[in-house]
């Protein structure tokens, strides 16, 4: 969404600077709540005796809720206003926190994670656009880089914040399956009040358009390259999903480090690495970012497998693998979004990105659930080896296409830029303004 094309109402935008940071705080809080249960899964397993496979099912409930909300409600704030979507989305997360507290059994976990996903999906898309608009209102004519950096940090960084705070509270405060949710209920309440005080930037349309889900489209002139980018996003979500679902089980089991604080810290390191990678390469070409991302994510996967297959499994190697995987995932994320953003015409860029994230959410569910299922019949070490091996093969198969430079129009109709297009070359394009991810 391009902020300069939005209506600006001076009477309602007297405090856009305050609103920007209020929405940023709410963004971090909403995303962070989505990963509060991550370091606690080993405690739920120990208490209730369910398997690693059930952990992946609980995680899948969150992922499915997120993608449904993103595609069914993420774009509705364009019609009804940012605040009217953001507040109900956060109330859904508060309802999920209550379910965690009063119904802490497996069915309750499934319900709570589904509610969390529904809230996060709607809020993520809304907050990303809202930040860009508030920034444009606060600094008219200024560069949009601050909004991009804050949005990326709030989005990916929020995942890490949720795990590290939850893990620390569970480890050192006591009542580990209660206190983290109480604390985040308070934080979400504060965030809702801040959002209510933030200025609206998108007045409701009159008459309201007829409802439709978010459209998903693939640029017909570049389907081969789009497919490669979508496959890359599949790998990104699969790698990050490992650390928000089963990584604590590896720490507590294979690596013999059951600390929930450590489990939260590991996920924090992974997502912080992804944020650092995106911010550090904000001015780099997409081609260079993709080239670095492919190599980095492969090294990270190799380190993870090596860490658990050593005669004495190594926590240090596992941490290193997590950091390197996070760096690679962040680079691939930026590179694939930049590629698709440049491939698609401006008037259908959101629809093309929706297709990209649909592929990503498939990576968030299918491989992780498959890994959990595999561990029911094999060892965790073998399961991780197969998981990393499949992702490695996928990366190696798609990298030549993803890294190829576009030919002039006419040499190859599949991947060339169509005539009369005002788009720049694919691998020199900047990433789109809105980077959306939920997990």
Automatic annotation (TrEMBL):
Major localization listed first in the record, in broad terms: membrane
Superkingdom per UniProt: Bacteria
Keyword set includes Transmembrane: yes
Region called Disordered, residue ranges: 407-427
Cell compartment(s), UniProt: Cell membrane
Transmembrane segment boundaries: 20-44, 50-73, 85-104, 110-132, 153-173, 179-198, 225-247, 259-277, 289-309, 315-333, 353-374, 380-403
Keyword Cell division belongs to the record: no
Membrane topology, from the record: Multi-pass membrane protein
Annotated ranges, domain Major facilitator superfamily (MFS) profile: 18-407
Xref: PROSITE patterns: MFS
Record key words, sorted: Cell membrane, Membrane, Transmembrane, Transmembrane helix, Transport
SUPFAM superfamilies attached to this UniProt entry: MFS general substrate transporter (SSF103473)
Family annotation (InterPro entries): MFS (IPR011701), MFS_dom (IPR020846), MFS_trans_sf (IPR036259), MFS_Transporters (IPR050171)
Matching PANTHER family: MAJOR FACILITATOR SUPERFAMILY MFS_1, RESISTANCE PROTEIN MDTM, PUTATIVE-RELATED-RELATED
Protein name as it appears in the record: MFS transporter
Organism: Pseudonocardia xinjiangensis
């Amino acid at each position: 969404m391009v902020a300069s094309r939005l209506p600006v109402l001076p009477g309602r935008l007297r405090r856009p600077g305050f609103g920007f940071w209020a929405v940023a705080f709410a963004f971090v809080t909403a995303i962070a709540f989505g990963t509060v249960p991550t370091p606690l899964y080993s405690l739920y397993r120990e208490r209730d005796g369910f398997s690693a496979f059930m952990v992946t099912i609980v995680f899948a409930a969150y992922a499915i809720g997120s993608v449904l909300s993103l595609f069914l409600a993420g774009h509705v704030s364009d019609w009804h206003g940012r605040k009217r979507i953001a507040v109900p989305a956060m109330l859904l997360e508060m309802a999920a926190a209550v379910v965690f507290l009063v119904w802490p059994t497996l069915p309750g976990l499934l319900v709570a994670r589904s509610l969390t996903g529904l809230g996060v999906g709607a809020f993520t898309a809304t907050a990303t656009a809202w930040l860009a608009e508030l920034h444009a209102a606060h600094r008219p004519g200024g560069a949009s880089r601050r909004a991009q950096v804050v949005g990326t940090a709030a989005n990916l960084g929020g995942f890490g914040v949720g795990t590290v705070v939850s893990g620390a509270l569970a480890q050192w405060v006591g009542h580990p399956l209660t206190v983290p949710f109480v604390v985040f209920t308070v934080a979400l309440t504060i965030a809702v009040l801040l959002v209510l005080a933030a200025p609206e930037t998108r007045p409701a349309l009159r008459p309201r358009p007829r409802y439709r889900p978010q459209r998903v489209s693939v640029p017909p002139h570049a389907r081969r390259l789009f497919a490669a980018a979508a496959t890359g996003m599949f790998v990104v979500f699969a790698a990050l999903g490992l650390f928000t679902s089963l990584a604590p089980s590896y720490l507590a089991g294979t690596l013999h480090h059951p600390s929930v604080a450590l489990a939260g810290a590991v996920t924090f390191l992974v997502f912080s690495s992804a944020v650092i990678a995106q911010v550090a390469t904000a001015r780099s070409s997409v081609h260079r970012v993709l080239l670095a991302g492919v190599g980095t994510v492969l090294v990270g996967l190799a380190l993870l497998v090596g860490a658990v297959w050593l005669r004495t499994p190594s926590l240090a190697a596992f941490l290193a693998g997590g950091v390197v995987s996070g760096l690679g995932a962040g680079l691939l994320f930026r590179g694939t979004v930049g590629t698709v953003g440049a491939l698609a015409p401006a008037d259908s860029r959101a629809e093309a990105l929706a297709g990209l994230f649909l592929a990503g959410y498939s990576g968030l569910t299918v491989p992780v659930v498959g890994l959990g299922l595999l561990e029911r019949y094999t060892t965790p070490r073998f399961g991780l080896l197969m998981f990393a091996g499949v992702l490695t093969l996928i990366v190696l198969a798609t990298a030549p296409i993803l890294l190829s430079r576009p030919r002039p129009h006419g040499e190859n109709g599949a991947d060339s830029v169509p005539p009369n297009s005002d788009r720049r070359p694919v691998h020199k394009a900047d990433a789109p303004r809105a980077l959306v991810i939920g997990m």
